[in-house]
Amino acid sequence: MDRVKLCLVMLSVLTMVISCGSEPEPGTENTLPPAKVDTVSVPVENTAEIVDIIIAEDTTENIDFDPGSISQELFDLTKIEVQHFIEDLNKIIASGNYNSWKAALSEGYFREISSPESLQQVSEQPAMTSRKIVLKTAEDYFNHVVVPSRANSRVDDIEFISQNRVKAYTVMTREGQAQRLRLYDLELIENIWKIIN
Fold first, then answer.
1. In the chain, % of residues over pLDDT 90
2. Burial class of residue 81, CB neighbours in 10 A (0-12, 13-18, 19+)
3. Among the four 25, 60, 109, 166, which has the fewest Cβ within 10 Å?
4. What CATH architecture is 71-195?
5. 126/115 Cα distance (integer angstroms)
6. Could you tell me if 169 and 153 are in contact, meaning their C-beta atoms sit under 8 angstroms apart?
7. What CA–CA distance (Å, rounded) separates 4 from 9?
8. Chain segment 84-120, per-residue pLDDT in tens
9. Facing residues of 189 across strands?
């Protein structure tokens, strides 16, 4: 029922936006400036519905995104920003600062790694079972997974996934061949880079 209400509200907003964008009939004057709709806030009891809609919209954006639309200047600037972000993150991880690390994660990613299912899955990995480590909280994940493996990460390359999302890679040489290894998926959220996966 809530989904139906949400769809009806979104449909009515879309209809208003489309009708506001049409040209006035000849001979009529438009005395008001055109309306600009930035956001629509709809109260919904189940926030999972909103997340589903946002994910569906993001997927469409990513399908239509052309990495060739990114200028070399934007690419270079973004790569430098991401490198600085990861250097700062390395310091946070090396110092064991859980709260600052948590602040570098998107809310969705933090929920994902904090879930009992995710913690159990990581706990069942050989690296954890051989040391008899059972993760119960996101802080356990930080101390036993992130700190040992991510304190010295280096960004050698990035790949744009959308206008505000990139994958950060490090390049390692193994058996004489260079291999690109993905470090993080990042998103620019309110002008701050956040880890999304």
1. 59
2. middle
3. 25
4. Roll (3.10)
5. 20
6. no
7. 9
8. 999 999 999 999 999 999 999 999 999 999 999 999 9
9. 192
Q: How far apart are CA 170 and CA 29, in angstroms?
A: 59
How many angstroms separate the CA atoms of 42 and 54, rounded? 13
Please name the residue ranges forming H helices in the chain. 2-20, 47-64, 72-94, 98-103, 107-114, 116-123, 126-129, 138-141, 147-150
pLDDT for 50-66, tens place per residue?
Answer: 233 333 334 334 567 88
What is each CA distance from 72 to 85, 141, 174, in whole angstroms? 20, 37, 29
The Cα 173–Cα 179 span in angstroms is 6
Q: What is the pLDDT of residue 63?
A: 63
Question: pLDDT tens digits, residue range 144-195?
Answer: 999 998 888 999 999 999 999 999 999 998 889 989 999 999 999 999 999 9
Structure confidence at residue 112 (pLDDT): 96
Please answer whether residues 170 and 153 qualify as being in contact, where contact means their C-beta atoms are separated by less than 8 angstroms.
yes
Residues 6+ apart with CB under 8 A from 27: none
